[in-house]
Amino acid sequence: MANENDRLTVRAISKRFGPVLAVNNVSFSVRKGTIHGLVGENGAGKSTLVKIITGLEKPDDGEILLDGKAVRFVTPIEARGYGITAVYQDPKLFPHIDVGENIFMGIYPRNALGLVKKRRMYGEAKRLLEDLSIDIDPHALIAGLSVAEIQFVEIVRAICADMKLLILDEPTASLTPSEADRLFAVAQALKENGTSILFISHRLEEVLKITNAVTVLRDGCHVITLPTSELTEEILVHHMVGRELKTFFTRTTSNVHEKIVLEVKNLTLPGFFRNVSFKIREGEIVGLMGLVGAGRTEIAESIFGIRPPASGEVYVSGERIKPKNPNIMRSKGVAYIPENRDENGLILAQGVAENVCLTVLDSLSLLGFISHRSEKTFAQPFVDDLEIKTESLDTPVGRLSGGNRQKVVLAKWLATKPRVLILDEPTHGIDISAKSQVHKRIFELAAEGFAVLLISSDLPEIMAMSDRILVVSRGEIVDEFTGESATQEELMTAAVSSRGRKDRNE
Amino acid sequence: MNNTKRGKQSLAQGLANRLSRNTLRLRLISVFLSFLVLFVVFSFTSENFFNFQNLKVIAFNASLLTIVACASAIVVLTRNLDLSVGSILGLAGYLVAKFATAFPHSGPMIIFIGIAVGIVLGLLNGLAIAYGKIPSIVATLGTMAIYRGLTIIIGRGIEVPSGNLPQWMIRSADLTIFNVPLVVVLAIVVVFILAFLLNNLPIFRRVYAVGSNPEAAVFYGLRSRRVVLFAYAVCGGLCGLASFLYVSRVGTITVNLGRGWETTALAAVVIGGVSMTGGSGNIIGAFLGALILSTIDNGLVLARAPEFWRMFIQGLAIVGAVLLDAMIERRIQSIFKRGRM
Asked: Quick check: pTM over 0.90?
């Protein structure tokens, strides 16, 4: 059944997180000595699949074959013992320890007394680095290396075992083009030695450049696996998109006024984004679309003063404001609802009323004291308005469902009477009916005259919701679409390419 | 155009990299330099400071603190704390004195009793923290009180007079090798053995790794819990050894033995450049930290400075050291985590 040229076969793997089917019956094979691309939108299930292959997550169903034999790992170490290693986007190394030891940590060469054979270790490290023509001193501390060098060390560490499959998860996301080329050279060298590589990237031109075959995932499902020779960027994008909008509510009217509420000019934060400029009018919903790591959240955090920008200007209702910290922005009428609402937005152990009033404690307090009754009186209309389903105003927020928690966060920020609402992935991880309610509420807010900046990875959602869509790629706004004019293909093409339509047309 | 910008960026980065590559080494040198500065200053403030007799006093006073500081340092390297070292010292010391009184002819067995008691108490800490997942500051705050309380219950508040201890123990405190007190030699030997093991024994290297990046340790399969347990056991064992030396030196043992040592030892560790965020620092640093504290004590006494000056200067040294470490750590983390876009 399994082809003898197959190194890794994933067969009918499924994994469910609560209501979400993250990976749904996925099957594909990676050939020996090839580079195999894995692409898909945000949340298509790539990361979960990697975690399952390396033993960090347990699949609900299905099996993994390595060289034709079924394997099941419980820990990444076990996977490593079989020659499967993953290099993640964020470094998994020890910053205070030098390169040589990081490579050999846990698998030290030892002498008869059980002591580390240091000379042998550093010599071996040097040889491994040189084999891949990587110029790093084995005695250098990890803390002193560049991002690319750190990745090379991780790869070298992976190699010292008998490596069969190397998984590179978004390896080029934080590399410069020349560093990325070095990485590809290393990958080629490994491939020629017979190692298979599973290469995950948002950058389709890279995928097309270095892979032998590509698997596309969408919504946790396997869409297609094709040899790279039969692929183009257009074909890949076509397979990646095509999800349907899952909501019970659609927008009927859009009422955009002339008045500009939020204007951003040439906002720059080195290393994250540069020259970001846009305007949002009263009653307008502007979508900010981009792949994970493109800089969407960083732009939002910058406007809200969490990461003050290095340069650029922000105007709220025509008044120039320096976003030095969130307090200033909040007092000027900007509200930001972060993606990770439990971590950043709520005190789970406290009641609904307390949470709603968090942002406006000063105005509710009398001589510095707050009466619980006034909190409840204040919170009640918000709870009614947003239809937050809770037993009472004192019910701890931790006991509410995801959708209702999201509404509490929304209420909390609406309490500050904002003019600009920045919503980062407002419907991430909540069920369809709650999603529809959030959508409805966002429309109502826009109709009331709020300026809304909506960040979402959900293509159909952002298309249905927005009056205009800005596409961010690698820290720059590369393209702009009006809501109805865009197709999923166009949006995705803009998001994955290094240059937007604007540049290409020039 | 893009490329030249990146070129400039990486040039600046390269410079920063070279700097940070050596910061950890520089940190230890800074500890040594401040020790030298103290020495020079005190040599001027009092003429009795810089002579062999006084240096011997400083070394003698620093010796026990050195061992306890090393014990504390090993735990701090794993990104944990041990507030119970003073109480371990007390309980182990009390049991050592009791045992020596009851079996005066048991000889060197007494040393092993001290070490064994220390290891057991350390293991209990380690179990609560590594396996019970109790934050170390809370767990050892608890065991600090528990161990002290046990000492008082066992001793019923009565002290063990020195007259009951075997003579060889009392005399051992006065032994010298080439005019250097035996306990000083022993402390130096302990420091060097530990420094060697920390650099060369895999399990001790894991102590660094777990403290440096606990998240990565999982991916490396380092079994962090065992490493933390090990660190606490070593810490306890060293406190047990120190308790024997303490009993031999002081003779009369009260239930208050070792009270307050946890903070002094921690002060020595911090001043010696062992990072409270784990993963960086070494035993030589803890040793220098203990020497610095002992020198400050001695120098101020000779200069007839009032007692509160000692606390004030010690406090300044701690805050200064922690600030410096925080700056270094921020630098390391910002380089390590930069550019994740």
From this structure: no
